[in-house]
Design a protein that fits this description.
The complex is a heterodimer of chains A (about 850) and B (about 230). Chain A has about 850 residues and is α+β, with helices and mostly antiparallel strands. Chain A contains 28 helices and 21 strands. Chain A folds into 4 domains: about 240 residues, no CATH class; about 130 residues, no CATH class; about 230 residues, no CATH class; about 160 residues, no CATH class. Chains A and B meet through helix 1, helix 2, helix 12 and helix 13 of A and helix 1, strand 5, helix 2, helix 3 and helix 5 of B. The complex binds adenosine-5'-triphosphate (ATP) and magnesium ion (MG).
Chain lengths: ~850, ~230
């Protein structure tokens, strides 16, 4: 009866109608904002990363959509590796269509002013290419000049590197050209392709006179088609479709190019999203851990509030309002910061983006950021805040009274949502549930392992506590186990940063170690290719004349597969039961012939077959390990090759393990001697050039005497790859740094939040006779421990992770650079100590009296 | 007809632990009449604070019934008990228990604001003036001395004109003069507003100022003295 009356009288006000909780939220909050600094900082960093990546993506997509046609420069492009069939061209060439052509090949260029030469991509153009977009040159009329025939254009980076300017003369093959200017922008080409393969442009009419087009030179031809409408494009596609296959051509449409570029960009974008996602999750950890500390701190106040009659939900609402409002403010700041960062991205990585990004704010990304931020601040604060609801009022009477653990529905719901959140967030970021799931799983694994290592480490420290070390060291160490100290969260977040940086370092040194030429003195670093059979001996004597080693002179025969185990390639392509990747069946193979293994090879199975001339045996060829898996063949299988129209029946006699980067060239298929000697072939020679002046002289004479022979300087490629790796590494390092910063933010927060407890403790120590510098030492050593343990945590895991990655993903030998890893670790420790000390200055210097006054 | 504001019947509190059960309160029964004053004394650990906590509905008994203003606290949920506290009960604690992030004035206003009342500042200021803190409205607890903090706590306890005031060692942390001020306020309130005063203390002098003294030992009520307050 009585209870009934009470239920009627007590009105439950919703958060929106309860003025009191809003008022309390403000009154209580105005002095606590600094305590929630960690919360806001975590949120800002996480949201900034998400928004920066998101808005870059939207800008990119928009740009791709707008300029799709300019990427291709035409409505339709047909590609071929032999000159186009005259009949085919005649069919296409009507009044409704405009045509343009280009031919691309590798060639040497010699800059006559400096007599330097290098390998370039020679592009010969004919017609009014591009139909969409523009070739931007300097000076502006250079392209028109080039079309006249005597002139050439150079990619800007190439001209800069070799200090070539207009009116200088260059030599391509046997002919000289005058430089008309430089190309600043070429449709569809990015600076990335220009870095890897800088181009020289000439008119198609001049190509033949260079003498570069010879047997065996690989030339790819393109035919650009401009139509008057979409409909016309479709007609053209329908027209060429049946012919293209017969003639061995392929074609590319605007949609297709857009898709390819989009996909290429998507995978880069996914990678970046992963980074942003990690940042976001780190932010979430920061949010949860800061709110957790905050809620614990508020326990006593909640007990008092409950004593004077506030309900559990009211108390919860007070802090929830504070967190939510700050969360929204933090999200707005974070989103603004993210948009700001996005404006910088084109400056840093613009060269590597396929299209030019306009500076602009993506409001969609901005909005998404704020939404995600608000969501994160609610989701990740509910769990720690729910505890507030169950603070027993009895705590006012007994300070250390702890209530039994209460499991509420809210708590379970929060836990479920928190588990779902990373999966959904990652899925949204990558626009794919599978990637999202994998992302989350990977991160959970990484964080889980880090947590395990951290817990294990702390357990060991406790177990083998150095009882005999000096007081200062012991005390600092036991401080790690102080309640509310967040030691585990610190080890995990700072450790994650250390983990990312050192894993990256391990992979980089493993990869570089693999391609490094330094260690093995006699390996080739310079490859000469496209040597005609009749030039072979002269080239070899030229190498010898310059006192260079002739490491390899190998013949190359181009051929295709035409059958495996009695099935034709066509049958295999259509077959559903044999799933061999089509490109492996249709591609052109460049094979060689010899009877012995090269130094980079090792026989895994079978034997190197020797073919007796004139015998009736079939020919035994060997295959490289990787391609054997791709083609799904085993020793004894029969393979039919089409060698320039002549079918040759072979069987697989062995499988070779090939260390590709070691002493190139290396081959997928090796024939025995005595079979291909009379087939049309070209030669490749490999040598090693160690002194640069000699290299220049040798190159000069080579280009001069054998203009069609090209030279690859592997050292040059290596340094280009290294440069690329450094740029990518920069991004990854940035993320790692970000992770460490999050860790340090958590650290700063933990220090700030435990400030009072620490001050009290230090005052106690002082009363017991500790001197300031002893307290200082204790503090520094404590952070030293945090740093060391974090570094160890990250390092242990990165050694494991790096080993797995190198072994299974990159398939290279695991190698570490101890010095660099030590530098990373020491850096992490120093940074941790610095931040810890910076935040503890007040703790160290507060005079005792002030503490006693607060005691009440 | 005098009204019974607290009625405890057979209150028992047992703390269970792994090794043994600890009976902290053993079958305690008593009643308190509106407007009277009552002291609970006894050696440390005898269960005084526990009894106070149960009477104020801060905790629930293992067995027995506790009713406050006729409401059976032991069958209510925590939020309902909170409501009852807000309506009828005031507290003063040994360690003051002010909210550190609120000013003196705001601390005093909390219980009324919690009821949803508006314009409570004048009343709170009045009370602060009455306890002699007219000049300290906007000071934070950390800027006040112990005695001043306790007076703010008194003002906060009085602002709802509670029917019952629970005080657990209210002068325990104070020097003689501050203690005297607090004592005067407590009993003044008891007389003027007919607030029932339940006082837990070690201090026999203080206890003797009440009308009734309940003496506890080992969780049991062992003696009850009724006398005219000194
Ligand atoms: N949560 C708990 N678990 C176990 N025992 C408890 C708990 N809370 C209190 N006790 C025990 O109950 C007994 C009574 O405690 P209580 O605080 O009521 O004594 P008290 O009379 O107020 O003592 P004091 O005068 O020292 O304040 C003590 O022995 C105490 O150890
Ligand atoms: Mg007590």
């Amino acid at each position: 009866m009585i209870e009934y009356v009470i239920k009627l009288k007590r009105e439950v006000r919703s958060i929106f109608k309860d003025r009191w909780v809003w008022m309390m939220a403000w009154r209580d909050g105005r002095h606590n904002f600094s305590r929630l600094f960690l919360f806001v900082a975590s949120l800002i960093t996480g949201i900034a990363a998400v928004v920066a990546i998101g808005s870059l993506n939207y800008a990119m997509q928009g740009e791709l959509d707008k300029n799709a046609k300019e990427l291709l420069g035409a409505d339709l492009v047909i590609n071929s590796n032999k000159p186009f069939d005259k009949g085919f061209i005649r069919k296409l060439d009507t009044a409704k269509r405009e045509l343009a052509k280009d031919a691309e090949m590798a060639s040497m260029v010699m800059f006559l002013n400096t007599k330097q030469s290098r390998l370039i991509k020679l592009t010969a153009l004919e017609g009014e290419f591009p139909f969409y977009g523009k070739i931007v040159t300097q000076p502006a009329n250079a392209y028109e000049l080039m079309k006249k025939g005597n002139y050439a254009l150079l990619d800007e980076s190439l001209a800069r590197q070799y200090e070539v300017s207009s009116d200088d003369t260059i030599k391509l093959g046997t002919r000289n050209f005058i430089v008309a200017g430089v190309v600043e922008k070429f449709p569809g080409g990015g600076a990335l392709t220009a870095t890897l393969a800088p181009a020289v442009y000439i008119s198609m009419s001049a190509l033949d006179s260079t003498g570069l087009v010879q047997f065996g030179s690989r030339i790819s031809y393109s035919l650009f088609v401009k139509t008057t409408s979409e409909k016309q494009t479709e007609n053209a596609i329908n027209l060429i479709k049946p012919l293209v296959e017969d003639l061995g051509y392929s074609y590319d449409t605007v949609e297709g190019r857009k898709r390819d570029l989009g996909e290429g960009f998507q995978s880069v974008y996914r990678f970046f999203s992963l980074l942003a996602f990690v940042a976001l999750i780190l932010g979430c950890i920061g949010v949860a851990s800061s709110v957790h500390i905050y809620a614990r701190e508020k326990r006593d106040e909640v007990a008092v509030l409950r004593c004077v009659g506030s309900s559990g939900w009211q108390a919860f609402n007070i802090y929830f309002i504070q967190i939510f409002i700050l969360g929204v403010v933090g999200s707005i700041i974070g989103a603004a910061l993210g948009v700001g960062i996005q404006q910088l991205i084109p400056f840093v990585f613009g060269d590597y983006l396929p299209v030019e990004i306009q500076l602009g704010v993506s409001w969609r990304a901005f909005g998404e950021g704020i939404f995600i931020g608000a969501l994160v601040s609610v989701l990740f604060s509910i769990l720690p805040l729910v505890a507030v609801r169950f603070v027993p009022p009895l705590a006012v009477l007994r300070a250390d009274f702890t209530s039994p653990k209460i499991v509420s529905k809210t708590k379970w719901m929060a836990i479920t949502l928190i588990v779902l959140f990373p999966i959904l967030a990652a899925s949204y970021q990558t626009r794919s549930f599978i990637s999202g799931g994998l992302f989350s799983l990977g991160l959970a694994l990484a964080l889980g392992s880090l947590a395990l290592v951290a817990i294990g480490l702390l357990f060991l420290v406790r177990r083998f506590f150095p009882q005999n070390s000096s007081f200062i060291f012991r005390h600092a160490l036991s401080n790690l186990f102080r309640p509310n100290n967040q030691t585990q969260v610190l080890l995990v977040t700072i450790g994650l940063g250390a983990f990312i940086i050192s894993t990256l370092n391990i992979i980089q040194s493993s990869l570089l170690n693999q391609v490094e030429f330094r260690g093995n003195k006699n390996q080739s670093n310079t490859i000469l290719f496209d040597i005609q059979s009749n030039q072979k001996d002269d080239v070899v004597s030229l190498i010898k004349k310059h006192n260079l080693p002739v490491n390899q002179v190998v013949p190359i025969v181009t051929c295709r597969l035409s059958g495996i185990n009695g099935f034709t390639v066509e049958q295999l392509l259509e077959s559903d039961s044999v799933k061999i990747r089509p490109w492996a069946l249709t591609r052109e193979y460049r094979v060689t012939y010899r009877d012995s293994l090269h130094i980079s090879e090792e026989l895994l199975e079978g034997e190197m077959h020797s073919y007796k001339k004139g015998s009736t045996d079939s020919v035994g060829v060997t295959i490289s390990e990787g391609m054997q898996e791709t083609l799904k063949v085993k020793v004894g299988d029969t393979l039919v090759f089409d060698i320039q129209g002549v079918p040759i029946k072979t069987f697989l006699s062995g499988i070779r393990k090939v260390e590709w980067p070691k002493d190139p060239p290396n081959f997928i298929f090796v024939f025995p001697k005595g079979v291909l000697e009379n087939a049309p072939q070209i030669w490749v020679a490999a040598t090693r050039i160690d002194n640069p002046p000699g290299a220049i002289q040798f190159q000069q004479e080579l280009v001069f005497k054998f203009p069609n022979v090209s030279l690859i300087d592997l050292q040059l490629i290596l340094s280009t790859v290294d440069e690329l790796f450094t740029k990518v590494g920069l991004v990854v390092r940035f993320l790692a740094l970000f992770s460490i910063v999050t860790g340090l933010v958590v650290l700063a927060g933990a220090v700030m939040n435990s400030k009072f407890a620490r001050i009290k403790e230090n005052v106690l120590l002082r009363t017991l006779g500790a001197r300031t510098n002893q307290i200082m030492k204790i503090t520094l050593i404590e952070y030293g421990y945090v740093g060391i343990f974090s570094a160890i945590t990250g390092l242990v895991l990165s050694l494991g992770g790096g080993w797995l990655l190198t072994k299974f993903f990159f398939e290279v030998q695991f190698s570490i650079n101890l010095i660099e890893l030590s530098i990373i670790s020491v850096g992490v420790v120093l940074l941790t100590v610095l931040i810890g000390w910076w935040n503890s200055r007040e703790v160290i210097s507060t005079p005792p009296l002030q503490v006693l006054r607060k005691e009440g | 007809m005098p009204e019974t504001v607290i009625k405890a019947e057979g209150l028992t509190k047992i703390y269970k632990s792994a090794e043994n059960d600890l009976t902290v309160l053993d079958n305690v029964s008593f009643e308190a009449i509106q407007g009277t004053s009552l002291a609970i004394i006894g050696p440390s650990g005898s269960g005084k604070t526990t009894l106070l906590g149960l009477c104020a509905g801060l905790d629930i008994p293992t067995a027995g019934i506790i009713s406050l203003m006729g409401f059976k606290l032991n069958v209510m949920d925590e939020d309902d008990r909170a409501y009852i506290r807000n309506q009828y009960v005031g507290f003063v604690f040994q360690n003051f228990q002010l909210l550190p992030t609120l000013t003196a004035l705001e601390n005093v206003m909390v219980p009324l604001e919690l009821r949803g009342e508006r314009n409570v500042a004048p009343k709170a200021k009045d009370l602060l003036v009455r306890v002699g803190l007219g000049a300290r409205f906007s000071h934070y607890p950390s800027q006040l001395s112990g005695g001043e903090q306790q007076r703010v706590a008194m003002a906060r306890a009085f602002i709802t004109s509670p029917r019952i005031l629970f005080a657990d060692e209210p002068t325990g942390n104070l020097d003689g003069e501050s203690a005297a001020q607090i004592t005067n306020l407590l009993f003044g309130m008891n007389r003027e507003e007919k607030t029932t005063l339940i006082l837990v203390t070690h201090n026999l002098e203080l206890a003797k100022k009440t009308e009734r003294i309940l003496q506890m030992k080992d969780g049991k009520l062992v003696n009850e003295q009724i006398h005219s307050p000194a």
